[in-house]
């Protein structure tokens, strides 16, 4: 988050200027414009006008409106499909050119390799799109580590704060919920997973939001994947 989201804010105007004529970019802008129309009654909402001419000044006016809309949505930490789609395309370009790499803590890869050797399967469930997940792990500080994961889930399967999402994932991978361990840094997600009878550990990492004393005493806490001792699946 400390790298990816600031990258969007800092580079969205430059990206739009460079890719404006491309079909994918126009689809992204169209989706943002539609979202802006739906948001028109919200306080501070930023409309995105249609281009009414062909001059450079007119183009800049529309691009600036898109930039302002993206910044407004991000300031509210919104997760609209339109915003996530543009972000995903920007990150794809940034990863491919080496401007951005997915930061992976050094304990993660060795731990996952051990789990897989023990017969366990590892899945990613994130509020970031599956495309964004694959970019992060495909262009990471540890290289391409996509082979370590058996599958990916995003919020298309359901919000991470709803217990039904975890039941759907369990059904999708053919596993009972009580045979799944879910790692998260968000107590609301941990609570939802527990409601679905999933095992939970809350991960404490630099930069994560702090926990209340009650949360610290209630949840199993780890600060490194090396602290997890999982039974073999064989």
Offer a concise description of the structure:
The chain is mostly helical and 234 residues long. The protein is built from nine helices and five strands.
Summarize the topology.
Elements: H1 4-19, H2 23-38, H3 56-75, H4 81-96, H5 108-117, E1 123-125, H6 130-138, E2 151-153, H7 163-173, E3 181-184, H8 187-195, E4 199-203, H9 213-218, E5 221-222
Parallel strand pairs: 1-2, 3-4, 4-5
Number of helices: 9
As a whole number of angstroms, the C-alpha radius of gyration is 20 Å
The class by helix and strand makeup works out as mainly alpha
Distance from N terminus to C terminus (CA atoms, Å) equals 36 Å
| Total E-strand runs | 5
Report the major sheet: 3 strands, parallel
Q: Could you report the average pLDDT, rounded to the nearest whole number?
A: 94
What kind of assembly state do the chains in view correspond to? single chain
Q: How are helices and strands ordered from N to C?
A: HHHHHEHEHEHEHE
Q: Which percent band covers the strand fraction?
A: 5-15%
Shape: elongated
Low-confidence regions: none
Indicate the percent of residues in helices.
40-55%
Biggest sheet, spatial arrangement of strands: 3-4-5
Give the tags:
234 residues, three-stranded parallel β-sheet, two-stranded parallel sheet
Description:
The protein is mostly helical. It contains 9 helices and 5 strands, in the order αααααβαβαβαβαβ. It has helices at 4-19, 23-38, 56-75, 81-96, 108-117, 130-138, 163-173, 187-195, 213-218, and strands at residues 123-125, 151-153, 181-184, 199-203, 221-222. The chain has a 3-stranded parallel beta sheet, with helices on one face. A two-stranded parallel ribbon has the order 1-2. Strand 4, helix 9 and strand 5 (221-222) form a beta-alpha-beta unit. Helix 1 (4-19) packs antiparallel against helix 3, helix 4 (81-96) packs parallel to helix 6 and helix 7 packs across helix 8 (187-195). The longest helix is centred in the first third of the chain and has 20 residues, at 56-75. The chain is elongated. The mean pLDDT is 94.
């Amino acid at each position: 988050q400390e790298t990816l989201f600031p990258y969007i804010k800092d580079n969205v105007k430059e990206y739009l200027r460079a890719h404006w004529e491309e079909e994918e970019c126009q689809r992204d802008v169209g989706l943002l414009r539609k979202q802006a129309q739906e948001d028109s009654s919200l306080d501070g909402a930023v409309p995105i006008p249609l281009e009414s001419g062909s001059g450079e000044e007119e183009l800049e006016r529309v691009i600036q409106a898109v930039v302002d809309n993206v910044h407004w949505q991000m300031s509210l930490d919104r997760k609209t499909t339109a915003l996530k789609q543009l972000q995903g395309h920007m990150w794809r370009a940034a990863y491919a050119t080496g401007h951005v790499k997915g930061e992976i803590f050094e304990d993660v890869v060795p731990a996952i390799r051990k789990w897989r050797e023990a017969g366990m399967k590892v899945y990613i469930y994130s509020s970031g799109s599956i495309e964004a997940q694959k970019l992060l792990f495909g262009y990471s500080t540890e290289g391409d580590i996509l082979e370590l994961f058996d599958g990916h889930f995003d919020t298309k399967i359901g919000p991470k704060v709803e217990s039904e999402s975890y039941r759907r994932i369990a059904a999708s991978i053919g596993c009972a919920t009580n045979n799944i361990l879910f790692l998260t840094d968000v107590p609301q997600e941990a609570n939802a997973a527990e409601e679905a009878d999933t095992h939970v550990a809350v991960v404490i990492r630099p930069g994560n939001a702090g926990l209340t004393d009650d949360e610290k005493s209630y949840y199993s806490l780890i600060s490194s994947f090396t602290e997890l001792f999982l039974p073999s699946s064989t």
